[in-house]
Amino acid sequence: MAKKYFWLKLKDNFFKQKSIKKLRKMAGGDTFTIIYLKMQLLSLTNEGKLYYEGIEDNFVEELALELDENVEDIQMTVLYLQKNNLIEFGELPDEYILPEVIGSIGSESASAERVRKYREKQKALQCNTTVTKMLSPVTNSNTEIEINKEIDIEKDIEKEKKNHLLSLSYKEKLTEFKKIIMKATNSNEHQVNLVFQPGRYQNIIDDLLLNIYNSDYLQGETDKIPPLSTYTTESQINKIMAGFYKTYNKAKDKTGIEALQYKTNNSLDDIL
User: Fold this and answer.
1) Distance CA 246, CA 212 (A)
2) Among 9, 104, 201, 209, which residue carries the largest CB count within 10 Å?
3) How many CB atoms lie within 10 A of CB 81?
């Protein structure tokens, strides 16, 4: 399985929240706050959920072992989080949910990371206009080689996405789709479930997810937040299927300059 990286998108007002201010004012509050953050990071690969596996006598002692923290400090933190609705019992036995983490998880595959780093490198090179003007034919040839490498990487990513979909059941695809919606729209599962109609996606789920994978906007990777209706109404779903939101590389000149933008096509008006 391809390697995947996760990160926590911490809200800019995290330390301004009353619940966090109160936590920090307690005796040992800064330690409790660090423990809460470590709990959030621990839950990333499980979509904001923690599990008691029975290695220690109870969840608190097992969490202390996992986080390398004092048992009493873990207990105080968990009790405070429970009192302030920052930790909840899940639907499964020994499952605990951190609601603030849901919708705040970022991730990317190793291959996607390579493309991102390559693009960052290209942007840095663009700043040096003096060097660009003095590019020799040999340098231009090297640039073309780099462009071809990027294209090959993007093809590998596309193949990886298709193989990933083939490995999932229809139910698992719907679950992944809902996770994307929650992340992109900053919505919780309850809000999504209110408007989500699984039967609508029965025959299109693979193509729908592939089109979403090809759109930074639809995956919540841009500053603009899409509304829930983007994923749940027929007219908006048609736009996704038509590639309306696709992020693509603008045609590159011989110096390899690129730009990302949303693809638009006037011929799509009739079906939108």
Assistant:
1) 8
2) 209
3) 21
